[in-house]
Amino acid sequence: VVALDGADRALCCCKAAPGSKPKSLRRSRLVALHPRRQGQVTCVVTHATDSFRTLANAQVQRGDRVVEIGASTGETAWRLARAVAAGEGGSGGSKSGSYVGVDCSEEMVATAKKAHPDLEFQLLDCLMEKYRFLALCEGADCIFIDIGGSRSAETVVLVLALLLKRMQPKLVVIKCEELVADLDANTTVDDSGEVQDAAAWFTAAVDAAAKSSESWGRKKDQRKIRHPLRHQRKLAPNGVEICRYYQFGECHRASDPGGCPYEHGLCYECLEPGHRALD
Ligand SMILES: C[S@@+](CC[C@H](N)C(=O)[O-])C[C@H]1O[C@@H](n2cnc3c(N)ncnc32)[C@H](O)[C@@H]1O
Ligand SMILES: [Zn+2]
Ligand SMILES: [Zn+2]
């Protein structure tokens, strides 16, 4: 456990002990592997969906307010909802827990709603609609994150940084194989699974993720605003020059009586038909 972001915020970054809790155990027999610590965010990172769902059962307490990011079809959702309603311990009977799941896929949200009509799911991309996302997470005790896909570690790190700047949930649980690999490669982990140099690692990871997503965005933008003729001339395999206006902007000769004499049929970048370099 180490201080992060100054003295008043700390991140306890742990790896879930792999395979420690078989799925068949009754919820009432599960023990929270990773304790919550007063005034700190406990962050549990796992590589497997099974463990993620077990953590949903074991780490969440009755009365918790839970937000799940990447709720998909709702397979973790109902476990979380059950845990906040019927979980053991925690702040006890008076506080009523809540569950909200978000996903950026319309199809997934529809499927989840159909499967679990009593639970709340919202269509939301947490990186595109930051303010709506933060408003939704405000006051949450537990945040579960599994957004899958490539570049997921980078996205998860950015989401986590965004959250921790604004709020201090008690618990964050993340499923991300890439992130576990990154922790394995770049940190020291003690016997109980706690990452020793979590703060330094997190600072570096946020830095790298921010740089990478920035340069990625910039590259894309630059390509868009460059004048078409600033791109080198290029011939299609049939020997006809590729129309740079068509590829990188608009070709006004396409509507000429004889059409544009340059090649419009292939992509400037990959020479495949069916799309343009900017598509
Ligand atoms: C691997 S699935 C999650 C599975 C879920 N944890 C379970 O146990 O069934 C990942 C989901 O994250 C969603 N997702 C990806 N990027 C997202 C983003 N930026 N905001 C919200 N959801 C996102 C995808 O649509 C997908 O449904
Ligand atoms: Zn043209
Ligand atoms: Zn192409």
Automatic annotation (TrEMBL):
UniProt source species: Rhizochromulina marina
Zinc finger (C3H1-type) stretch: 237-267
Name of protein: C3H1-type domain-containing protein
InterPro entries xref list: SAM-dependent_MTases_sf, Znf_CCCH
Key word Cell membrane present: no
Boundaries of every C3H1-type domain copy: 237-267
Keywords attached to this entry: Metal-binding, Zinc, Zinc-finger
Gene3D superfamilies registered for this protein in UniProt: Vaccinia Virus protein VP39
Keyword set includes Zinc: yes
GO molecular function list: zinc ion binding
